[in-house]
Every structure is written in structure tokens, then in C-alpha cells.
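Note to self: keep these together.
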Amino acid sequence: MENHPSDPTVFVPGKGELVVDTRQRIPGRVVDMWNGGAWLRPVAGGREWEARVEHLRRPDTTEAIRARMAELDHHSRAGRLR
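Structure:
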């Protein structure tokens, strides 16, 4: 994680990081960052979406475990378990 230079309290995730979009209330992996926002991919596959950085947060422990299980399930069904 890196912080926004002008405000050290703003959470700015890195590529590949698991986050929760607080507006849609779903977890996603950061695919790319752009000025003030991020492209997210659903953990169980599907269409990417955009979210503003201020609407992203780190998942709590339960959310992180559920997201990781969804990823593993998705990859095992696709034959790419990792």
C-alpha cells in the first residue's frame, strides 16, 4: 500500500491488491490505477468495473477469507488452481 502524497490518511491500493468497493459492497482485485480511481476485477471472475479510490478499503478478515475462497473456487473450476 502507498499513501497519497498530500494526505497520508487516504488508502491507495496497489495493483493486485484485494479491496472492497464500499459503494457496491463487493470485493475485487485492483487491475489498474488511474488518477483518483481504480479498475477492479471480481474475485470470482466477471466484468471489471471502475471505482473511486475514496470508495475503496481493505477487507476485514472475514471478507478476505471469503474472497480468497471464491478465487480458489473460480480457478479450480477453470483448471488453474493456484
